[in-house]
Give the backbone structure.
Amino acid sequence: MNERYSRQVLFPGIGKVGQEKISRKSVLIIGAGALGSGNAEVLARAGVGKITIIDRDYVEASNLQRQQLYTEEDAAEKLPKAAAAEKRLKAINSEVKVDAIIGDATPILLEELAADVDLMIDATDNFETRMAMNDVSQKYNVPWIYGACVGSFGMSFSVIPGKTPCLNCLLRAIPLQGMTCDTGGIISPAVQMVIAHQTAEALKILAEDWDAVRTTFVSFDVWRNQYTGLKMSKAKFAGCLSCGSERTYPYLDHENMTKTTVLCGRDTVQIRPSVQGEISLERLAGQLSSLGYTVKGNPYLLSVEMSGERMVIFKDGRALIHGTKDLTHAKSLYQRILG
Amino acid sequence: MNERYSRQVLFPGIGKVGQEKISRKSVLIIGAGALGSGNAEVLARAGVGKITIIDRDYVEASNLQRQQLYTEEDAAEKLPKAAAAEKRLKAINSEVKVDAIIGDATPILLEELAADVDLMIDATDNFETRMAMNDVSQKYNVPWIYGACVGSFGMSFSVIPGKTPCLNCLLRAIPLQGMTCDTGGIISPAVQMVIAHQTAEALKILAEDWDAVRTTFVSFDVWRNQYTGLKMSKAKFAGCLSCGSERTYPYLDHENMTKTTVLCGRDTVQIRPSVQGEISLERLAGQLSSLGYTVKGNPYLLSVEMSGERMVIFKDGRALIHGTKDLTHAKSLYQRILG
Amino acid sequence: MNKVLFFAHLRDCLGEEFLMVEAKGKTVAELKTELNASYDLPKMDTVMTAINEEFAANDEVIQDGDVIAFIPPVSGG
Amino acid sequence: MNKVLFFAHLRDCLGEEFLMVEAKGKTVAELKTELNASYDLPKMDTVMTAINEEFAANDEVIQDGDVIAFIPPVSGG
């Protein structure tokens, strides 16, 4: 027995056999923000065989309040999160193979990566990526664990293809204006609580203790002292386009993705959301003002000054990001605010 | 607004006023193991004014699976946990004052420290220290947050002097043979879950949102998917010697503490527990064997080979630790096994 | 009568933890439309609904005494 | 009849998640003594007891139908 994992081997739910299994498994973590860094640290310490972590952003001062792998130095150097995460994970456990990908978790990339992993962990900040992950999970028969939080509120659900309902069964569409940490704030205990749930499920799945996997959709509020587990036995939707018999994997279809284009000669990126609908500019203006941003607007659009860039958001969710030609950066700014 | 804490200030439960309060508060964390390192990291990231962290042990390989501030290098160098924690906490947030104490959290030391802190966080591995912390809390009117875990099971309770029952109301005596992580194993998600609860309560108390403080005793099992909050309105015990009207603070009394003595000329430390009673040698032998220790015994005593030392445990809980003259080290070994 | 609970930012929008409404015989979708008309809530289409701690689809019919909960899926991570 | 739930290592000692016993009219202390006599459980003195999700002292009397839970305080950290 490797002394390093002795306390985990001693736990009857894992034991020697479970630890052996964990050490041969490969996990894909999508996002290296609060949930991603926390999940990665727990799984690296637990001795997972390989961790692939993907993120498109760099470490900023406002991340340090809750993103546990990063230091002030990482923020000062503006290190890409995936690179900073890799550095710390290797110092924590050199036995774990870490593959850090600095980039956007596009459906194409997710399809490539999913073919070789045993589990995907949701640590993204937007529903478009989650829905793509959900389709990839069904297509390649790989479980994934939904996790999200905002303010003091969080939720988690394990999606096991062929067993549980999937995220598209539950939502039927991408929520147009989800609350994000950039609009609703976030406290670290809510993050930790989601991480606890996601990593418990991850260890069960990696150790192949399938009977122990949680079947309820759990949600909680650590400030208001609430905790609920919803039974999901009736949630599976026969006509679901992601997991039903007539499945089309709609979120792997280019037509249904957010479109980003550099506007010719204007140092501006245009973003068209994947969803049809109308957003509440008034509500958004209120949130962004209370965040300290300078916001101007009229009934048709909102203009927000960000550090170095200006974002103009229209009622149908379309946006122009002035001051950049970087598509990934522009999409990241957009999704941080609109989810 | 300091950009660093912007996401936390945006959370309505804290806001600018709460953040200002948090930044002026002082927290004492007792223990720098799994719960201690996790609590310290969350509170340092949240921008608490001062963190005092006390621990008597050094970093070992078997800690790395769940103790989040430490690296392989810390274990290779056998750094004292308090020192290793201080190093990482400063890299995380240089604005926080960190006071690391390498040593035993004796009642005398706790009394000295408690006079200057706003909150104590329980991250110890034994009930003797918890009961001392509980008495100190009542004597100096400082809230403390109980937290503990073993296997996939964990619990937490906030003790607010003058408002809630105290730990002595609930237990009435020190449990003689509590399960420890060295005998029952531990998985990291259970640790994270306790940390989430302790730090949520800590932020409420530090931001002075007293109405939000949890009044239930929460316990959970992340593997068996259980979660319960016990109402505690009837738990206050009028005759409690720690918080009742005839209080004597029994656990600050030298008579009621574990006694450690070096046996003259024998390279052996003798330990006498604070509690009268009988332990189950048979159960203990089973646990220690499954841990991989070499255990011999007869109906009167158990002999356990540890790395470099041999511990002989008698039915009344007395023990001899052969191969050391270090009282603190010997007590640490003892409490890791007997709680 | 039915108790209707709101979670996360829905609660902040409403300013209350719960409402008492008469929803007997209505579908979940009908209740959502009514609430959208009476209160300043964000669009309820993708908000998850639970009846008595069990997931409920939009076409499920509410019985007298059922406890309804609206849980907005959040996107932060 | 009464359902008696066991948490943490008590459950492992017992091998069951719960027992059905007739405990009506007994005090918590009496039930603990009985269980100690019948099963290979560690000493129950410092095990916390809940009746219907509310903390109960050793002298509390159990009613018919009460759900009892035994929660051993754990010491790991």
